[in-house]
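ingest -> validate -> predict -> emit
validate: passed (alphabet ok, no gaps, 282 aa)
predict: started
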Amino acid sequence: MSDRSPEYAARHPSQEKSTGLAEGPLARKRVLITRAREQAEGLTRLLREAGAVPIALPAIRIEPPESWDPFDQSIVRLHEYDWVIFTSANGVEAVVARLTHLGVAMDGLRGKKVAAIGPATARALEQQGIHADFIPSEYVAEAVAQGMESFGMREARLLLPRAAEARDVLVQLLAGMGARVDEVPVYRTVHEAGSVREIEELLRTGQIDAVTFASSSAVRSLCSAFQKLTSPHRGPTVVCIGPVTAATATELGIRVDIVAKEYTTPGLVRALEDYFRQELEG
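emit:
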């Protein structure tokens, strides 16, 4: 693995070495990773293993919520909730960090029924000794709500710690089933202006073969960069981790070439490999 920084790779992509199979479909493809810096490692590793040249320039960064008061108050009442629903690994990490800061033991969460939106979130919970009682087969909010209905949501008390800017659909669907949902922000995503300026230059000069989007927040952060391209048909291949992210990109005028069938980091890489393999076989 290269010991050069992501910033170096962005400025000198041709000099950043891949370590994967030289003849694979992603061999020497320069792939932009737009995830927050803390989340980029796994995708970087998988792309390198596939022979790509990953360029990690976060379009967003994770920050604490404007206020911790709603979450802190919910923790005092944790015994009142039937379920705690986590919709991202970021949410798990933010909750764990806040409980640690408050000096509150994790035992309260370990004793609750917990739902996780997907395997990455479930793994983050497992690392804290918390087992996910429910993971939907499709890793989107709509599937979480559909699956939770089978547990009986009428009059159920649900705690939903998540991003401040998250979609309202999960709350609306659960409330429509008769559940009482306390939605509390535990983190927010912020535009990473410095990285976005570098990304704009890479896009302008055609130094990127593919761009990966793993969240709607990253798409929104790079919307203006894509709008500066002279044509929607010009520019790198765009791959989104799932339909929600893809819908955001489409709504903002960004051409989406690939949507991963499995809404995970490995699924995103496989989708990218399949796409470029088809191009090679042409």
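DSSP finds twelve helices and ten strands in the chain.
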